[in-house]
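Changelog entry

Holo records now carry the ligand SMILES as an explicit input line rather than a separate metadata file. Below, a converted record for flavin-adenine dinucleotide, shown in the new format.
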Amino acid sequence: MNYTRNLRYCRRQFINVYNNSFSTSVIKSQSVQQVAQPKRICIVGAGPAGFYAAQYLLKQLSDCSVDIVEKLPVPFGLVRFGVAPDHPEVKNVINTFTKTAENPRLRFFGNVTLGTYVTLQELRERYHAVLLTYGADQDRELELHNEQQAHVISARKFVAWYNGLPGAEQLQPDLSGRDVTIVGQGNVAVDVARMLLSPIDNLKVTDTTEYALEALANSKVERVHLVGRRGPLQAAFTIKELREMLKLPQVETRWRAEDFTGVDAQLDKLQRPRKRLTELMLKSLGEQSSRQSGDVSKQFLPIFLRAPKAIVEREMEFAITELQENSAVATSATEKLPADLILRSIGYKSSCADAGINFDARRGQVCNEQGRVLQDKETKQTAPGLYVAGWLGTGPTGVILTTMNGAFAVAKTICNDIAANAFDTTSLKPGFDPSNKPIVTWEGWQRIDKHETEAGKAKGKPREKIVSIPEMLRIAGV
Ligand SMILES: Cc1cc2nc3c(=O)[nH]c(=O)nc-3n(C[C@H](O)[C@H](O)[C@H](O)COP(=O)(O)OP(=O)(O)OC[C@H]3O[C@@H](n4cnc5c(N)ncnc54)[C@H](O)[C@@H]3O)c2cc1C
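Structure line, unchanged by the conversion:
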């Protein structure tokens, strides 16, 4: 956008502001210069944190315009590329995000990567405030010898594979063996176990990518071990995910009775969600000896109190642990589990997208205080007009609801800082210039969306995701 077009845009914003929300008296009492200049805010990353922050800002600041720049040609981050395909109800948040995107004061620029396509400095020069919400796209490693072998992959990559993240189709996980060992017991680990053990007909009606459906249909996996360092009372999965596993057709869940020694006695001391989860595990354990094996063909095997120690060919060695004040402490005893495929699911971490970001590489997140990015770690001074929200700021914890609350809180901080003149919002800021660039606009995304849903309909699926970026760009009309 050149300067004249930009001025025109500012005037249009001013008219919108005038028409929509400001009372005439407020308008008259301020100079045109002050009111006509919209507060330009750039959000980096079109995941839940980005969209929820945009929603809040657009609602609370009637004189702001929000641009979202997103690395991929398509929006929604982990809602599209993380949430399990057989949890379509979770993806309903996309309707809220779409409503936000349709606000005339929001522009979406897909196919724009912070750090390569645009720098943080450029964005800070072009906007009054920049909010970083580019998520956590790396995984934590076990730091074991042999971890780089082909049969050891991260759950993050496996999830990206079945969810059609561009580039992930090349993963081709080897599903020709009988045993998969998943290290970690969070909900992502359970999602992965469910995808491996679900009857293929259950998955055919989801938006699982075709290549993944084909591989899963030919899978020889029969047993999935879900291994955690701590005990049942510390299990990281939640009750809904466990219930789904217990109900999977033709799949038997088998617990180890010795993992539950003394657990009964703790029940009354537990908070309600933990108590209900523990009761369900105990109930399932109690029923397992009398359960008819019937048409069971696969097993789900949660195993507690085991810490990863070594990867030895098609086996994984674990140290047997003991709990000391809720922490797992390794003993000298070990156990080996069969592992034709090892999936590491011990958490995500963020990367530093731009050299200008004050990034804590050890924790894998942007240094911040309540969403205000710190200029440097020593003085704790904040960088004016620079904010972070979502997993990039908090670390990879919680669900979409948690991310929403966090994003609203940071957006509120931005509003408060603007009201307190904590950074300049009066100078003219041009915003991102999309001209002559391979940008996917919101209309472009809608073309991709239409194409995907139509292709899905033909196969009885909610959508058939396009996994190639050039193909996405072609359909978007870039
Ligand atoms: C496998 C998995 C399953 C999950 N399932 C559920 C569930 O069922 N229910 C639930 O409530 N929660 C679930 N969650 C949690 C939920 O996905 C997160 O709470 C939420 O997505 C975090 O939002 P975010 O915006 O911080 O990050 P993200 O969703 O990761 O969004 C970040 C966005 O930034 C973009 N980006 C990355 N780098 C750049 C860059 N350099 N420049 C520009 N853009 C960039 C990314 O492409 C992405 O679109 C799941 C998480 C995972 C990992």
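Spot-checked after migration. The CA atoms of residues 390 and 406 lie 7 Å apart. The chain has two domains: 3-137+349-439, 141-346.
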